[in-house]
Write a structure and sequence with these properties.
Layout lengths: L2 H34 L5 H19 L6 E7 L3 E5 L3 E3 L5 E6 L6 H5 L8 E10 L2 E7 L7 H8 L15 H7 L6 E6 L5 H15 L1 H7 L1 E4 L3 H7 L2 H4 L5 E4 L16 H8 L2 H11 L9 E4 L4 E4 L1 H13 L8 H20 L4 H12 L2 H10 L5 H15 L17 H12 L4 H25 L11 H4 L2 H9 L6 H7 L7 E4 L7 H10 L5 E5 L13 H9 L3 E6 L1 E2 L4 H14 L7 E2 L7 E4 L13 E4 L15 E7 L6 H8 L2 E9 L1
Parallel strand pairs: 2-4, 7-13, 7-14, 8-9, 8-12, 12-13, 15-16, 17-20, 18-19, 19-20
Antiparallel strand pairs: 1-2, 1-5, 3-4, 5-6, 10-11
Helix pairs in contact: 1-2, 5-6, 6-7, 11-17, 12-13, 13-14, 13-15, 16-17, 17-22, 18-20, 24-25
The chain binds adenosine-5'-triphosphate (ATP).
Adenosine-5'-triphosphate binds next to α4 and α6.
Length: about 675
């Protein structure tokens, strides 16, 4: 690196930063203009505001590490960075190439064995717009830039890796597969990083579709979501909903766990049958005949009559709530003949009169709501847990607070919503919303109309518009951002779904995700050897065949970027206990061997700098909560008191130093 070269590259980087600043200013000005534009149709304006806001946020996060690399070929030179910048005066010639563009790809994939036309690959080290240095990596597999990145101390949140994506990772990030992609790999192989960069890549390659539908990222717990939550915004992407499996049913947010036995019961597919039975159990027959008092006679609504009506309602093939009116009609039909028998007369109009009387009769209506109640998913499950479970052969499901939802209840609530159908609540809410809007519009028109200053022969607002029309204009647009709308709507379907730590999800969880992603565009990352959940995956085929038979692909990552080789060798014992045939990933770095001590205070190992965690069966950080996280120094307390999978997870969290303390 000569001083002249450094100055030339600094000039280039300064120029790119100036360009970025210009583009930022232009996008902001356009956004301000769109926000103030009163003439533009409202819908157009909202689309423009949304697109421009996204553009502004994308450009504003790009300044840090704006340009991180350069590749030279025999006839071209490409600067690679976080966003694309173009020379608008020179036919949109690229000044900086977005890391996701095809032209940037050789930056990640060229090797000495397969240089892809690349003669030089250069990595820049920058701070803001200041170039601190650069180096050329001779197209080696493991570059200095990677080792520097891996040796850097970690912070509380995960960072993006655009400057140092490795070839095996790049292949997965850009894989053109449209269905389900499973990325498997041991601890620290960059599965999470790769999945998030794949989202950023897909948002780049299929922006039109994905920004309309959004992307859902499912992670194991809130701590993990906080840890990874900055990666996509740092890449300028915001149309992403993050959720734990305990948050996938709108209105419920839980991290309570059932016992492993209950998790297994609720997580297996037989839970669907249990719910079908629970719904059937709510289609009841009267124990005693219910008297229906007509004008002339009292007809007993017997179990036989209700049974007849129930058969008809069940045969209608509708969902439970939607079949209630069918049950009502069938009950009325079934009561006509006994009523006529009791009246003892029959002439053509009499049957029609009796039917009419029965149809509107409060006794019949009460019987319908008692025997075939409209239910919400929560009511169905709460009643089940409050005691109905015993009659269905599962007394173990009974619990003191039936509404204390657990993570394993969430897929059951979702399944129940499917079985029950609409309870009318959403429609009622929409109708109430609409009534309020019309009332508001009427108020607005009234104010305009009673304005004293108005002349009698002037055209008045009410001559031109009515309240319904005004209400339409008022409520047409939903102002919430996509992520909020999607998270609140159980029937929202996402353009792409990412599932991290996917080995933890139960068969019932997968059914929820299948509903949220009917196009089966998914990236699933996990490691079967790290499974801690009783109802989790033991075999990808078993999980994915029902979801996307013939449409899923499997890729494996083999290099460990987190844990030094010495720590990985130590953790290999735990891995062998989980699965004797499993192969541990190969670490790229070496470090100090783990330290084993007895009876020491775990907190005495807290280093002066860097991130630190104590993982112990009793907390503060349990192996379960440590899933997916990493720290510079980790103290694992009493690994023998953990299951082999928990031990394997706990021992593979350190990026530098591992201490094992036995109490
Ligand atoms: N190409 C890369 N350049 C720089 N850092 C990387 C790269 N790939 C992975 N890393 C870093 O390695 C660490 C481990 O990555 P990540 O958490 O994605 O692994 P994982 O496979 O999801 O691990 P686990 O299974 O334990 O959750 C992170 O700090 C990540 O930033």
């Amino acid at each position: 690196m000569t001083i002249g070269e450094l100055a030339a590259e600094q000039q280039r980087i300064t120029f790119l930063h100036d360009r970025l600043a210009r583009e930022q200013a232009a996008a902001r000005a356009e956004l301000d203009a769109a926000l103030q534009d009163g003439d533009e149709q409202r819908w157009h304006r909202e689309v423009a505001v949304r697109t421009l806001s996204a553009q502004v946020s994308r450009l504003s996060v790009a300044a840090e590490n704006l340009c991180f690399g350069r590749i030279d070929t025999t006839d071209d030179r490409v600067y690679v960075g976080r966003v694309g910048l173009f020379d608008t005066e020179r036919d949109y010639e690229p000044l900086l190439t977005d890391w996701r563009a095809p032209a940037a790809r050789p930056f990640y994939t060229a090797t000495a064995a397969n240089p892809e036309g690349v003669t030089r690959r250069r990595h820049f080290r920058t701070r803001g717009s200041r170039l601190e240095g650069f180096h050329d990596d001779e197209l080696q597999l493991t570059s200095k830039a990677l080792i520097d990145a891996l040796n850097a101390p970690r912070s509380a949140t995960m960072r993006d890796i655009v400057a140092t994506i490795q070839a095996e990772q790049d292949e997965v990030i850009r894989l053109p597969h449209r269905g389900v992609l499973v990325i498997e790999g041991g601890p620290g192989t960059g599965k999470t990083a790769v999945a998030l960069h794949r989202v950023a890549y897909l948002l780049y390659a299929q922006r039109e579709r994905l920004s309309r539908q959004g992307v859902l990222v499912v992670g194991p717990n809130a701590g993990f979501l906080r840890y990874i939550g900055e990666v996509l915004p740092s890449l300028g992407e915001t149309d992403v909903v993050f959720a734990t499996p305990g948050e996938l049913f709108p209105g419920v947010r839980t991290d309570l766990e059932d016992t492993p036995e209950l998790q297994a019961l609720k997580g297996g597919l037989s839970a669907v049958d249990l719910l079908v039975e629970a719904v059937a159990d709510r289609q009841e027959l009267p124990v005693e005949p219910v008297p229906v008092e007509l004008e002339d006679v009292t007809v007993p609504l017997t179990a036989a009559i209700a049974g007849q009506a129930r058969e008809r309602a069940r045969a209608a093939g509708l969902r439970h709530n939607e079949a209630q009116p069918v049950f009502h009609r069938a009950l009325v039909d079934a009561l006509v003949a006994p009523a006529l028998d009791l009246i003892g007369e029959d002439w053509p109009e009499l049957a029609a009169d009796v039917r009419r009387e029965l149809a509107g009769h409060p006794d019949v209506r009460r019987a319908v709501t008692g025997l075939w109640p409209v239910l919400t998913p929560r009511q169905l499950l709460a009643d089940l847990y409050a005691g109905r479970c015993s009659a269905l052969g599962h007394p173990e499901l009974r619990r003191a607070d039936p509404h204390a939802w657990t993570v394993s209840d969430v897929p059951l609530l979702d399944e129940a919503a499917e079985l029950l159908g609409s309870d009318g609540e959403a429609e009622r809410r929409a109708a109430a919303e609409r009534r309020r809007a019309v009332e508001y519009a009427q108020g607005v028109l009234h104010v305009i109309d009673t304005d004293q200053a108005m002349h009698e022969d002037e055209l008045r607002a009410v001559d031109l518009v009515d309240a319904e029309w005004l209400a339409d204009r008022h409520t047409a647009a939903d102002h919430r951002v996509l992520a909020e709308r999607a998270a609140a709507d159980r029937e929202w379907t996402y353009g792409h779904i990412v599932v991290d730590e996917a080995q933890e999800l139960s068969e019932m969880d997968w059914r929820v995700l299948a509903r949220r992603g009917p196009n089966r565009s998914m990236t699933i990352v996990g490691d079967l050897a790290q499974r801690q959940a009783e109802a989790g995956a033991r075999d990808w085929r078993k999980v994915l065949d029902p979801l996307a038979r013939g449409r899923w692909q499997h890729r494996r990552l083999t290099v460990n970027y987190r844990t030094p080789a010495e720590i990985m060798a130590y953790a290999a014992g735990a891995l062998a206990e989980v699965d004797p045939d499993a192969v541990a990933p190969t670490s790229v770095r070496h470090g100090e061997p783990p330290l084993e001590v007895t009876g020491a205070d775990p907190w005495s190992f807290r280093p002066a700098t860097g991130t630190f965690a104590v993982i112990s069966p009793a907390g503060p950080l349990t192996p379960r909560a440590a899933k997916g996280l990493e720290f510079d120094t980790v103290v694992v307390v009493d690994p023998e008191r953990m299951t082999p999978a928990e031990r394997y997870v706990a021992l593979t969290r350190a990026t530098r130093r591992l201490v094992v303390v036995r109490t």
